[in-house]
Design a protein that fits this description.
The chain has about 325 residues and is of the alpha/beta class. The protein contains seven helices and 19 strands.
Length: about 325
Amino acid sequence: MARDPVLSFTERGIYCSAGGFYIDPWRPVDRALVTHGHADHARPGHAAYLATRGAAPVLRHRLGDIALETMGYGETRRIGDAHVSFHPAGHVPGSAQIRVEVGGEVWVVSGDYKLASDGLSEPFEPVACHAFVSECTFGLPVFKWAPQAEVAAEINDWWAASVAEGRTPMLGAYALGKAQRLLALLDTAIGPVLTHGAVEEVTGVLRDQGYALPETVRVTPDLDPRDHPKALVLAPPSALSSAWARRFGATSTGFASGWMRLRGVRRRRAADRGFVISDHADWPALIEAITATGAERIFVTHGYTEIFSRWLTAQGWNAAIVPTEFGGETEDDGDAA
């Protein structure tokens, strides 16, 4: 009798019948293994959670007093008849790919990932497997990221130019991961960095874990921008057009996302500047990561799944699409905690 596949794709999420657990489930389950703390992957309501030690503080910050166990990268734990381990995904601090082995067959769920080291997140490590469940948020050839140092120079030049014009630069970025990555790239010799509360809270959690991040000033109701000349404001994207932002007077708005590669998205954002930087793999990195696994079967999730699956199939991979409720980089504040 044929045994169940190592992982199956259900209405609650990715399920391992041999271990009785789900990976990043989007409906309440008894046991959830979580790749990272973004809201589309780490949902409330599960009876028990398992994640990396690095992801745990953010998970507790976002989800409260949950029943959470942790593992270090590369450690192996037996759950039922499955052996599981977590491996760096390079997406945000503490993020992981999850390796599941049953009867000698290995499947890996990537979660979200990027290959380029950002100097903050634990760098991606390819994991050999028979089947690889890969995101493809940016699964089109048009998506190719410039080196991080080039984007950092663009942002810092924009900051200095905005200040010279008498405007306050306001940079929109997701509160978990992207905001801290940008913070580490900012040239604080130009001026201070003011942060929205959602950004500051997550930044404080990561600082307490030992991640080296520059000093910031939280924007409170009684903060007077005149007391912080030449400042840059770092906030979730939705805050840029809110009443919260009006206290800063004349501003220049910027948005940092891989979607800034598309002109139509830049226009809809109505920002003064768009900076192309993402915590997801670009097209070349997706192909590189999949190739490095040596996997025979590829399952693609959230993003340009049909196009990417067809391309993989044309190149000789056994590729299929997995519908999920993961949001990729399309939600403004899904990670704002």
